[in-house]
Amino acid sequence: MIKKEQETDFEQSLKSNDTEERIDIWFYRPIGFRIAKVCARLGITPNVVTIISIFFGVAAGVLFYYQDIWINIIGMLLLVFANSLDSADGQLARMTDNKSRFGRILDGFAGDFWFASIHIALCLRLIDQGWGIWIWIPGVLAGIAHVFQSAMADYYRNVHLYFIKGESGSELDNSKDLLVEFERLSWRKDTFQKIVLHGYMGYTRMQENLSPKLQKLLQLIHSRFPDMIPLELIQDFRKMNKPLMKYTNIVQFNTRVIFLFLWLFIDQVWLYFVFDILILTPILIYMVVRQEEVSKYFVYNIELENKYG
Length: 309
Fold this sequence. Notes:
Blueprint: H1 2-12, H2 22-42, H3 46-63, H4 69-96, H5 101-128, H6 136-165, H7 175-184, H8 191-209, H9 212-224, H10 231-241, H11 245-250, H12 253-265, H13 270-308
Helix pairs in contact: 2-4, 3-4, 3-5, 4-12, 5-6, 6-8, 6-13, 7-8, 9-13, 12-13
Protein name: CDP-alcohol phosphatidyltransferase family protein
Organism: Sphingobacterium tabacisoli
InterPro entries: CDP-OH_P_trans, CDP-OH_PTrfase_TM_dom
Protein backbone atom coordinates (compact mmCIF):
# COMPACT_ATOMS: atom_id res chain seq x y z
CA MET A 1 0.00 0.00 0.00
CA ILE A 2 2.79 2.44 0.93
CA LYS A 3 4.66 1.64 -2.28
CA LYS A 4 1.50 2.19 -4.33
CA GLU A 5 0.90 5.56 -2.63
CA GLN A 6 4.52 6.59 -3.34
CA GLU A 7 4.09 5.64 -7.01
CA THR A 8 0.90 7.71 -7.15
CA ASP A 9 2.67 10.71 -5.60
CA PHE A 10 5.48 10.31 -8.13
CA GLU A 11 3.06 10.14 -11.05
CA GLN A 12 1.26 13.24 -9.81
CA SER A 13 4.58 15.09 -9.74
CA LEU A 14 4.94 14.56 -13.51
CA LYS A 15 3.47 16.83 -16.14
CA SER A 16 2.15 14.17 -18.52
CA ASN A 17 3.31 10.87 -20.00
CA ASP A 18 2.68 12.43 -23.43
CA THR A 19 5.29 15.13 -22.90
CA GLU A 20 7.80 13.44 -20.59
CA GLU A 21 10.97 12.06 -22.16
CA ARG A 22 12.00 8.49 -21.34
CA ILE A 23 15.36 9.51 -19.89
CA ASP A 24 13.58 11.98 -17.62
CA ILE A 25 11.06 9.40 -16.40
CA TRP A 26 13.73 6.75 -15.82
CA PHE A 27 16.47 8.96 -14.37
CA TYR A 28 15.87 12.67 -13.70
CA ARG A 29 12.27 12.52 -12.44
CA PRO A 30 12.93 9.84 -9.78
CA ILE A 31 15.96 11.81 -8.52
CA GLY A 32 14.01 15.06 -8.70
CA PHE A 33 11.11 13.48 -6.82
CA ARG A 34 13.38 12.50 -3.93
CA ILE A 35 14.95 15.97 -3.84
CA ALA A 36 11.47 17.53 -3.95
CA LYS A 37 10.27 15.43 -1.01
CA VAL A 38 13.28 16.51 1.08
CA CYS A 39 12.72 20.15 0.12
CA ALA A 40 9.03 19.90 1.00
CA ARG A 41 9.90 18.62 4.47
CA LEU A 42 12.48 21.37 4.97
CA GLY A 43 10.17 24.11 3.67
CA ILE A 44 12.43 24.98 0.73
CA THR A 45 10.46 26.65 -2.08
CA PRO A 46 10.61 25.73 -5.78
CA ASN A 47 12.19 29.09 -6.66
CA VAL A 48 15.06 28.49 -4.24
CA VAL A 49 15.69 25.10 -5.87
CA THR A 50 15.73 26.78 -9.29
CA ILE A 51 18.23 29.40 -8.18
CA ILE A 52 20.51 26.70 -6.72
CA SER A 53 20.32 24.83 -10.05
CA ILE A 54 21.56 27.96 -11.85
CA PHE A 55 24.74 28.02 -9.75
CA PHE A 56 25.45 24.33 -10.41
CA GLY A 57 24.72 24.66 -14.13
CA VAL A 58 26.92 27.72 -14.56
CA ALA A 59 29.71 26.07 -12.57
CA ALA A 60 29.49 23.06 -14.89
CA GLY A 61 29.95 25.31 -17.90
CA VAL A 62 33.04 26.92 -16.35
CA LEU A 63 34.63 23.49 -15.86
CA PHE A 64 34.18 22.66 -19.55
CA TYR A 65 36.73 25.36 -20.34
CA TYR A 66 39.57 23.21 -19.05
CA GLN A 67 41.25 20.67 -21.35
CA ASP A 68 41.39 18.07 -18.60
CA ILE A 69 38.91 15.23 -18.96
CA TRP A 70 38.64 14.68 -15.19
CA ILE A 71 37.72 18.31 -14.62
CA ASN A 72 35.25 17.97 -17.50
CA ILE A 73 33.74 14.88 -15.86
CA ILE A 74 33.18 16.87 -12.67
CA GLY A 75 31.45 19.46 -14.85
CA MET A 76 29.29 16.73 -16.39
CA LEU A 77 28.23 15.54 -12.95
CA LEU A 78 27.41 19.11 -11.89
CA LEU A 79 25.31 19.60 -15.03
CA VAL A 80 23.44 16.34 -14.41
CA PHE A 81 22.79 17.47 -10.82
CA ALA A 82 21.65 20.90 -12.03
CA ASN A 83 19.13 19.25 -14.34
CA SER A 84 17.98 17.01 -11.46
CA LEU A 85 17.31 20.18 -9.47
CA ASP A 86 15.53 21.67 -12.47
CA SER A 87 13.31 18.60 -12.49
CA ALA A 88 12.82 18.83 -8.72
CA ASP A 89 11.61 22.45 -8.73
CA GLY A 90 8.66 21.68 -11.01
CA GLN A 91 7.82 18.48 -9.15
CA LEU A 92 8.01 20.34 -5.85
CA ALA A 93 5.71 23.06 -7.19
CA ARG A 94 3.13 20.47 -8.26
CA MET A 95 3.45 18.45 -5.03
CA THR A 96 3.00 21.50 -2.78
CA ASP A 97 0.70 23.42 -5.14
CA ASN A 98 3.19 26.28 -4.95
CA LYS A 99 3.05 27.42 -8.55
CA SER A 100 3.67 30.96 -9.76
CA ARG A 101 4.29 32.75 -13.01
CA PHE A 102 7.57 34.11 -11.68
CA GLY A 103 8.61 30.55 -10.85
CA ARG A 104 7.84 29.44 -14.42
CA ILE A 105 9.81 32.37 -15.83
CA LEU A 106 12.77 31.70 -13.54
CA ASP A 107 12.70 27.99 -14.39
CA GLY A 108 12.64 28.76 -18.12
CA PHE A 109 15.61 31.09 -17.93
CA ALA A 110 17.68 28.77 -15.70
CA GLY A 111 18.70 26.60 -18.65
CA ASP A 112 19.65 29.70 -20.62
CA PHE A 113 22.13 30.64 -17.89
CA TRP A 114 23.63 27.13 -17.95
CA PHE A 115 24.12 27.04 -21.68
CA ALA A 116 25.36 30.63 -21.92
CA SER A 117 28.11 29.56 -19.53
CA ILE A 118 28.77 26.43 -21.60
CA HIS A 119 28.96 28.29 -24.91
CA ILE A 120 31.30 30.94 -23.50
CA ALA A 121 33.54 28.28 -21.91
CA LEU A 122 33.73 26.23 -25.13
CA CYS A 123 34.58 29.31 -27.22
CA LEU A 124 37.37 30.30 -24.83
CA ARG A 125 38.64 26.71 -24.82
CA LEU A 126 38.77 26.62 -28.61
CA ILE A 127 40.53 30.00 -28.74
CA ASP A 128 43.18 28.58 -26.39
CA GLN A 129 43.54 25.68 -28.82
CA GLY A 130 44.31 28.14 -31.63
CA TRP A 131 40.96 28.48 -33.37
CA GLY A 132 40.94 32.28 -33.27
CA ILE A 133 38.27 34.73 -32.17
CA TRP A 134 36.09 33.88 -35.20
CA ILE A 135 34.88 30.85 -33.23
CA TRP A 136 32.56 33.27 -31.42
CA ILE A 137 30.45 33.40 -34.63
CA PRO A 138 29.30 29.75 -34.56
CA GLY A 139 29.29 29.90 -30.75
CA VAL A 140 26.83 32.79 -30.73
CA LEU A 141 24.77 31.36 -33.61
CA ALA A 142 24.48 28.05 -31.79
CA GLY A 143 23.42 29.92 -28.66
CA ILE A 144 20.70 31.79 -30.55
CA ALA A 145 19.55 28.54 -32.13
CA HIS A 146 19.39 26.95 -28.69
CA VAL A 147 17.14 29.75 -27.39
CA PHE A 148 14.68 29.24 -30.27
CA GLN A 149 14.77 25.46 -29.92
CA SER A 150 14.09 25.53 -26.18
CA ALA A 151 11.43 28.23 -26.47
CA MET A 152 9.39 26.44 -29.12
CA ALA A 153 9.77 22.99 -27.57
CA ASP A 154 8.54 24.35 -24.24
CA TYR A 155 5.67 26.20 -25.94
CA TYR A 156 4.46 23.17 -27.87
CA ARG A 157 4.57 21.03 -24.76
CA ASN A 158 2.42 23.54 -22.90
CA VAL A 159 -0.04 23.71 -25.79
CA HIS A 160 -0.33 19.92 -25.71
CA LEU A 161 -0.88 19.99 -21.94
CA TYR A 162 -3.49 22.72 -22.38
CA PHE A 163 -5.53 20.48 -24.66
CA ILE A 164 -5.29 17.32 -22.56
CA LYS A 165 -5.32 18.85 -19.06
CA GLY A 166 -6.86 22.30 -19.46
CA GLU A 167 -5.53 25.60 -18.15
CA SER A 168 -4.86 24.22 -14.65
CA GLY A 169 -2.58 21.49 -16.03
CA SER A 170 -0.67 23.74 -18.39
CA GLU A 171 1.67 26.72 -18.10
CA LEU A 172 0.51 28.29 -21.35
CA ASP A 173 0.74 32.08 -21.36
CA ASN A 174 -0.11 34.67 -23.99
CA SER A 175 1.36 38.12 -24.54
CA LYS A 176 -2.00 39.95 -24.23
CA ASP A 177 -2.65 38.68 -20.71
CA LEU A 178 0.97 39.34 -19.79
CA LEU A 179 0.65 42.92 -21.03
CA VAL A 180 -2.40 43.48 -18.81
CA GLU A 181 -0.45 42.22 -15.81
CA PHE A 182 2.60 44.27 -16.82
CA GLU A 183 0.58 47.49 -16.98
CA ARG A 184 -1.00 46.76 -13.60
CA LEU A 185 2.42 46.72 -11.93
CA SER A 186 4.10 49.91 -10.74
CA TRP A 187 7.62 50.86 -11.81
CA ARG A 188 8.17 52.40 -8.38
CA LYS A 189 6.92 49.48 -6.28
CA ASP A 190 7.41 46.52 -8.63
CA THR A 191 10.54 47.43 -10.57
CA PHE A 192 12.12 43.98 -10.60
CA GLN A 193 8.85 42.21 -11.42
CA LYS A 194 8.20 44.58 -14.33
CA ILE A 195 11.69 44.04 -15.76
CA VAL A 196 11.31 40.26 -15.54
CA LEU A 197 7.81 40.34 -16.99
CA HIS A 198 8.92 42.62 -19.83
CA GLY A 199 11.58 40.10 -20.82
CA TYR A 200 9.09 37.25 -20.57
CA MET A 201 6.62 39.12 -22.78
CA GLY A 202 9.28 39.35 -25.48
CA TYR A 203 9.99 35.65 -25.07
CA THR A 204 6.26 34.83 -25.38
CA ARG A 205 5.82 37.08 -28.43
CA MET A 206 8.67 35.23 -30.12
CA GLN A 207 6.85 31.94 -29.54
CA GLU A 208 3.61 33.39 -30.87
CA ASN A 209 5.23 34.95 -33.94
CA LEU A 210 6.68 31.58 -34.94
CA SER A 211 3.30 29.85 -34.67
CA PRO A 212 0.64 32.00 -36.44
CA LYS A 213 -1.72 29.11 -37.31
CA LEU A 214 -1.48 27.78 -33.79
CA GLN A 215 -2.41 31.25 -32.49
CA LYS A 216 -5.48 31.23 -34.72
CA LEU A 217 -6.43 27.80 -33.39
CA LEU A 218 -6.09 28.93 -29.77
CA GLN A 219 -8.20 32.01 -30.47
CA LEU A 220 -10.90 29.83 -32.03
CA ILE A 221 -10.81 27.45 -29.07
CA HIS A 222 -11.21 30.31 -26.58
CA SER A 223 -14.09 31.90 -28.48
CA ARG A 224 -15.87 28.70 -29.55
CA PHE A 225 -15.38 26.68 -26.36
CA PRO A 226 -14.88 29.19 -23.50
CA ASP A 227 -15.84 26.75 -20.75
CA MET A 228 -14.61 23.34 -21.85
CA ILE A 229 -12.98 21.83 -24.94
CA PRO A 230 -15.11 18.97 -26.32
CA LEU A 231 -13.74 15.52 -25.52
CA GLU A 232 -13.72 14.50 -29.19
CA LEU A 233 -11.58 17.53 -30.09
CA ILE A 234 -9.19 16.75 -27.21
CA GLN A 235 -8.81 13.16 -28.36
CA ASP A 236 -8.30 14.13 -32.01
CA PHE A 237 -5.74 16.81 -31.15
CA ARG A 238 -3.86 14.47 -28.84
CA LYS A 239 -3.74 11.78 -31.52
CA MET A 240 -2.33 14.13 -34.17
CA ASN A 241 -0.06 16.18 -31.92
CA LYS A 242 1.45 13.49 -29.69
CA PRO A 243 3.93 12.25 -32.37
CA LEU A 244 5.41 15.76 -32.44
CA MET A 245 6.33 15.59 -28.75
CA LYS A 246 9.35 13.41 -29.54
CA TYR A 247 10.82 16.30 -31.54
CA THR A 248 10.35 18.69 -28.62
CA ASN A 249 12.35 16.21 -26.53
CA ILE A 250 15.13 15.85 -29.13
CA VAL A 251 15.90 19.59 -29.18
CA GLN A 252 15.83 19.87 -25.40
CA PHE A 253 18.38 19.06 -22.69
CA ASN A 254 19.05 15.33 -22.90
CA THR A 255 20.01 14.92 -26.55
CA ARG A 256 22.28 17.95 -26.69
CA VAL A 257 23.99 17.03 -23.41
CA ILE A 258 24.67 13.43 -24.46
CA PHE A 259 26.46 14.72 -27.55
CA LEU A 260 28.16 17.51 -25.58
CA PHE A 261 29.65 14.90 -23.25
CA LEU A 262 30.77 12.86 -26.26
CA TRP A 263 32.55 15.88 -27.81
CA LEU A 264 34.22 16.59 -24.47
CA PHE A 265 35.48 13.01 -24.15
CA ILE A 266 37.10 13.14 -27.60
CA ASP A 267 38.19 16.79 -27.16
CA GLN A 268 36.35 17.98 -30.27
CA VAL A 269 34.02 20.51 -28.67
CA TRP A 270 33.63 22.51 -31.91
CA LEU A 271 31.30 19.71 -33.01
CA TYR A 272 28.82 20.87 -30.38
CA PHE A 273 28.20 24.10 -32.30
CA VAL A 274 27.93 22.21 -35.60
CA PHE A 275 25.45 19.78 -34.05
CA ASP A 276 23.33 22.59 -32.64
CA ILE A 277 23.21 24.55 -35.90
CA LEU A 278 23.10 21.83 -38.57
CA ILE A 279 21.24 19.01 -36.78
CA LEU A 280 19.00 20.43 -34.07
CA THR A 281 17.94 23.56 -35.97
CA PRO A 282 16.52 21.61 -38.96
CA ILE A 283 14.62 19.47 -36.45
CA LEU A 284 13.25 22.68 -34.93
CA ILE A 285 12.14 23.89 -38.37
CA TYR A 286 10.46 20.57 -39.12
CA MET A 287 8.75 20.66 -35.71
CA VAL A 288 7.37 24.17 -36.35
CA VAL A 289 6.15 23.28 -39.86
CA ARG A 290 4.40 20.10 -38.66
CA GLN A 291 2.78 21.86 -35.72
CA GLU A 292 1.46 24.55 -38.04
CA GLU A 293 -0.01 21.86 -40.30
CA VAL A 294 -1.77 20.27 -37.34
CA SER A 295 -3.13 23.65 -36.27
CA LYS A 296 -4.29 24.44 -39.81
CA TYR A 297 -6.20 21.15 -39.93
CA PHE A 298 -8.12 21.91 -36.73
CA VAL A 299 -8.74 25.55 -37.67
CA TYR A 300 -10.29 24.39 -40.95
CA ASN A 301 -12.53 21.83 -39.23
CA ILE A 302 -13.69 24.16 -36.46
CA GLU A 303 -14.48 26.95 -38.95
CA LEU A 304 -16.29 24.43 -41.16
CA GLU A 305 -18.35 23.29 -38.19
CA ASN A 306 -19.18 26.90 -37.31
CA LYS A 307 -20.27 27.56 -40.87
CA TYR A 308 -22.51 24.54 -41.31
CA GLY A 309 -23.09 23.43 -37.76
